[in-house]
Amino acid sequence: YKRFHEVVDKKPGDYEWLTLQTLDSSRSRQKAKLQGSVVYDLGLWFLLFCIFAAVVSPGITHRDVFHAYSMTILWIGMHHQCRGASTWNPNYLLTLFMPSTSLMPMEFCLPLQEVDNVDDLDDWRHFIQERCGITLNIVA
Fold this sequence. Notes:
The chain is built from 7 helices and no strands. It has helices at about 1-10, 25-35, 40-55, 65-80, 90-95, 100-110, 120-130. Helix 3 packs across helix 4. The longest helix is centred in the middle third of the chain and has 19 residues, at about 40-55.
């Protein structure tokens, strides 16, 4: 949003409808929202609870919680492949059981699928650097 700031600062009266955060406050707000948020971790914990309930409860079968097994296996596979995207928490088990500690860098890389030229890619890299403090190295 750096270019937005440049345009809005030149003619603030034309953009009264647009409220922009400062880069520093926006970065800290985004990082606090995504990194270590229990709300994002509850989805995985609920799946693990469903699997545990099928193991200990005679009324719940493993067939009833097949979705939990499927999602957990998919998460473990994705975690193993993508955990290197985060440098905040190098502990494998912590990032495995708390997905919010490893998801933020991946969320910022998803829009790269729609980048068509090197200039846009460079702009996105600088945006990620300013917003999150993450240096993105791309190997293609």
